[in-house]
Design goal:
185 residues, alpha+beta, 2 domains, 10 strands
Protein backbone atom coordinates (compact mmCIF):
# COMPACT_ATOMS: atom_id res chain seq x y z
CA UNK A 1 0.00 0.00 0.00
CA UNK A 2 1.48 3.35 -1.10
CA UNK A 3 0.35 6.18 1.31
CA UNK A 4 2.94 8.81 0.39
CA UNK A 5 1.31 11.47 -1.79
CA UNK A 6 3.05 12.24 -5.04
CA UNK A 7 3.49 15.85 -6.02
CA UNK A 8 3.66 16.81 -9.63
CA UNK A 9 6.44 19.01 -10.97
CA UNK A 10 3.78 21.44 -12.16
CA UNK A 11 2.40 21.97 -8.60
CA UNK A 12 5.96 22.37 -7.19
CA UNK A 13 6.77 25.07 -9.76
CA UNK A 14 3.44 26.85 -9.08
CA UNK A 15 4.02 26.76 -5.30
CA UNK A 16 7.58 28.06 -5.69
CA UNK A 17 6.49 30.95 -7.93
CA UNK A 18 3.59 31.84 -5.60
CA UNK A 19 5.96 31.83 -2.59
CA UNK A 20 8.45 34.04 -4.42
CA UNK A 21 5.74 36.56 -5.38
CA UNK A 22 4.41 36.63 -1.80
CA UNK A 23 7.95 37.17 -0.43
CA UNK A 24 8.50 40.10 -2.83
CA UNK A 25 5.18 41.69 -1.80
CA UNK A 26 6.05 41.37 1.90
CA UNK A 27 9.51 42.82 1.20
CA UNK A 28 8.07 45.84 -0.63
CA UNK A 29 5.17 46.55 1.74
CA UNK A 30 6.63 45.73 5.16
CA UNK A 31 10.34 44.95 5.37
CA UNK A 32 11.83 47.78 3.29
CA UNK A 33 9.71 50.53 4.93
CA UNK A 34 10.18 49.21 8.49
CA UNK A 35 13.89 48.38 8.28
CA UNK A 36 15.36 50.79 5.73
CA UNK A 37 12.77 53.59 5.34
CA UNK A 38 12.43 52.66 1.65
CA UNK A 39 8.77 52.78 0.66
CA UNK A 40 8.26 52.13 -3.07
CA UNK A 41 4.50 51.50 -2.72
CA UNK A 42 3.61 54.22 -0.17
CA UNK A 43 1.77 51.62 1.89
CA UNK A 44 4.52 51.49 4.51
CA UNK A 45 3.96 55.14 5.42
CA UNK A 46 0.18 54.69 5.56
CA UNK A 47 0.64 51.69 7.85
CA UNK A 48 3.09 53.62 10.07
CA UNK A 49 6.03 51.33 9.32
CA UNK A 50 8.45 54.00 8.06
CA UNK A 51 8.59 55.50 11.57
CA UNK A 52 10.34 52.33 12.77
CA UNK A 53 13.29 52.90 10.44
CA UNK A 54 13.97 56.58 11.07
CA UNK A 55 17.61 57.03 12.01
CA UNK A 56 17.97 60.76 11.46
CA UNK A 57 21.18 61.76 13.26
CA UNK A 58 19.72 65.14 14.18
CA UNK A 59 16.82 63.51 16.02
CA UNK A 60 18.03 63.14 19.59
CA UNK A 61 16.38 60.74 21.95
CA UNK A 62 14.56 62.24 24.88
CA UNK A 63 16.85 62.34 27.85
CA UNK A 64 17.24 63.51 31.38
CA UNK A 65 20.68 65.05 31.16
CA UNK A 66 21.27 65.70 34.82
CA UNK A 67 19.40 65.05 37.98
CA UNK A 68 20.34 65.69 41.59
CA UNK A 69 21.19 62.74 43.85
CA UNK A 70 18.05 63.32 45.90
CA UNK A 71 15.95 62.52 42.84
CA UNK A 72 17.07 58.92 43.15
CA UNK A 73 16.14 58.62 46.80
CA UNK A 74 12.66 58.21 48.24
CA UNK A 75 11.09 61.22 49.91
CA UNK A 76 11.37 61.13 53.68
CA UNK A 77 8.69 62.55 55.92
CA UNK A 78 9.10 66.15 56.97
CA UNK A 79 11.84 67.05 54.50
CA UNK A 80 11.37 69.32 51.53
CA UNK A 81 13.21 68.43 48.31
CA UNK A 82 14.95 70.81 45.98
CA UNK A 83 15.50 69.21 42.56
CA UNK A 84 16.80 70.45 39.21
CA UNK A 85 16.43 68.36 36.07
CA UNK A 86 17.48 69.12 32.50
CA UNK A 87 15.32 67.37 29.91
CA UNK A 88 15.77 67.26 26.13
CA UNK A 89 12.62 67.03 24.00
CA UNK A 90 13.51 65.68 20.54
CA UNK A 91 12.30 67.46 17.39
CA UNK A 92 8.75 66.60 16.29
CA UNK A 93 8.26 64.47 19.45
CA UNK A 94 6.58 64.71 22.82
CA UNK A 95 7.34 63.34 26.27
CA UNK A 96 5.98 63.27 29.79
CA UNK A 97 7.79 63.93 33.06
CA UNK A 98 5.90 63.01 36.25
CA UNK A 99 5.92 63.15 40.02
CA UNK A 100 3.89 61.12 42.50
CA UNK A 101 2.15 63.56 44.85
CA UNK A 102 -0.21 62.78 47.72
CA UNK A 103 -3.55 64.61 48.00
CA UNK A 104 -3.19 68.00 49.68
CA UNK A 105 0.60 68.23 49.29
CA UNK A 106 2.12 71.43 47.88
CA UNK A 107 4.26 71.23 44.73
CA UNK A 108 6.19 74.27 43.50
CA UNK A 109 7.84 74.43 40.09
CA UNK A 110 9.57 76.63 37.58
CA UNK A 111 10.72 75.55 34.12
CA UNK A 112 12.29 77.34 31.22
CA UNK A 113 13.42 76.20 27.78
CA UNK A 114 16.57 77.23 25.94
CA UNK A 115 14.40 79.83 24.15
CA UNK A 116 11.99 77.81 22.01
CA UNK A 117 8.30 77.58 22.88
CA UNK A 118 6.78 74.18 23.59
CA UNK A 119 3.18 73.04 23.71
CA UNK A 120 2.55 71.68 27.20
CA UNK A 121 -0.20 70.22 29.32
CA UNK A 122 0.40 70.32 33.08
CA UNK A 123 -1.96 67.65 34.43
CA UNK A 124 -2.60 64.94 36.99
CA UNK A 125 -3.88 61.36 36.88
CA UNK A 126 -5.53 59.84 39.99
CA UNK A 127 -3.77 56.82 41.43
CA UNK A 128 -5.53 53.55 40.61
CA UNK A 129 -7.76 55.05 37.89
CA UNK A 130 -7.89 52.72 34.88
CA UNK A 131 -10.32 54.79 32.78
CA UNK A 132 -7.66 57.09 31.33
CA UNK A 133 -9.07 60.14 33.16
CA UNK A 134 -6.72 63.04 33.76
CA UNK A 135 -7.22 66.63 34.96
CA UNK A 136 -5.46 69.44 33.11
CA UNK A 137 -4.27 72.29 35.33
CA UNK A 138 -2.69 74.39 32.57
CA UNK A 139 -2.41 73.93 28.82
CA UNK A 140 -0.51 76.40 26.64
CA UNK A 141 2.40 77.00 24.29
CA UNK A 142 5.20 78.86 26.06
CA UNK A 143 8.94 78.83 26.68
CA UNK A 144 8.57 78.95 30.47
CA UNK A 145 6.09 78.42 33.27
CA UNK A 146 5.99 78.49 37.06
CA UNK A 147 3.49 77.98 39.82
CA UNK A 148 2.30 76.07 42.83
CA UNK A 149 -0.05 73.10 42.86
CA UNK A 150 -1.87 71.73 45.88
CA UNK A 151 -2.62 68.21 44.67
CA UNK A 152 -6.39 67.68 44.44
CA UNK A 153 -5.89 63.90 44.53
CA UNK A 154 -3.14 61.33 45.08
CA UNK A 155 -1.47 60.28 41.86
CA UNK A 156 0.91 61.17 39.05
CA UNK A 157 1.25 64.88 38.29
CA UNK A 158 3.46 66.51 35.71
CA UNK A 159 3.86 67.70 32.17
CA UNK A 160 3.41 66.54 28.65
CA UNK A 161 5.70 68.65 26.47
CA UNK A 162 5.52 68.56 22.67
CA UNK A 163 8.28 69.95 20.48
CA UNK A 164 6.84 70.92 17.09
CA UNK A 165 10.13 72.38 15.86
CA UNK A 166 12.91 70.75 13.83
CA UNK A 167 15.50 71.10 16.60
CA UNK A 168 15.76 69.57 20.07
CA UNK A 169 14.55 71.79 22.92
CA UNK A 170 16.20 71.71 26.35
CA UNK A 171 14.08 72.30 29.46
CA UNK A 172 15.50 73.28 32.84
CA UNK A 173 12.94 72.15 35.47
CA UNK A 174 13.22 73.06 39.16
CA UNK A 175 10.82 71.63 41.74
CA UNK A 176 10.22 71.83 45.46
CA UNK A 177 7.70 70.09 47.72
CA UNK A 178 6.54 66.73 49.04
CA UNK A 179 6.73 64.23 46.16
CA UNK A 180 8.49 61.25 44.64
CA UNK A 181 10.03 61.67 41.20
CA UNK A 182 8.64 59.20 38.65
CA UNK A 183 10.65 60.74 35.79
CA UNK A 184 10.19 60.28 32.06
CA UNK A 185 7.11 58.32 31.08
Amino acid sequence: MDTIPKVSIRSLIFSSIASLILAIIILLIAVLPAEYNIDPTGLGKRLGLTVLAQTDDSAEKSAVISCSDTAKAKQTEGKEWQDTVIITVPPKKGLEYKFHIEKGEKFEFVWKTDGASLYFDFHGEPQGNTTGYFKSFKESTQSESSGTLVAPFTGAHGWYWENKSRSPVVINLKTRGQYTIKGLM
